[in-house]
Amino acid sequence: MPPLIWVDFMAKTACMICGKSKDGIEIAEDHVIRAMRWFKTNITKDAKGYRIVVCKDCMADYKKKRAKFTRRRLMYVGLGVIFTLSLLFVSQGRILGVLVYGFAAIVFMYLLSLVSYMPALKQTAKSRK
Ligand SMILES: [Zn+2]
Fold it and tell me: Which of 17, 24, 80, 118 could cross-link with 106 by S-S, CB 3.0 to 4.6 Å?
């Protein structure tokens, strides 16, 4: 979904962490960002067209939050999977019901992990370490 050139030119950048309009590394557009953008455009109608970035000053903070989120998501989805497997053990063959409950549990745990959502950064040519 490449933006129109003039839109890209007009769009301001905003740091995701401090909220200031600074330049920085842009975040990668994933399904969560797309969902948020769709929601803002179609439901709340307050899409501002900001390009969301992480500025240099906030990079350390961002990395911490991102690592925390990644761990938490893994843990939550893992718990959902464990819950599903344990249901399978006690289900005695009612696989379909287990799968429905299990799937719902995994989706629920995943959504729960989004409370501390931190998007990934766009991959840049030069590595930043
Ligand atoms: Zn910042």
Answer: 80
Residue 30 in contact with residue 119, Cβ under 8 Å? yes
Residue 41 lies in a domain: yes
The span from the CA of 4 to the CA of 117, in Å, is 28
Question: Within a domain: residue 128?
Answer: no
Span 64-113, pLDDT tens digits: 999 999 999 999 999 999 999 998 888 887 888 888 989 999 999 999 99
Both tokens assigned to 70: 């990644």
Distance 43 CA to ligand 1 centre (A): 28
Structural domain for 27, as ranges: 5-116
How much distance in Å is there from the Cα of 14 to the middle of ligand 1? 8
pLDDT by residue (tens digit) across 9-44?
A: 456 888 999 988 888 999 998 888 888 888 888 888
Cα(69) to ligand 1 centroid in Å equals 18
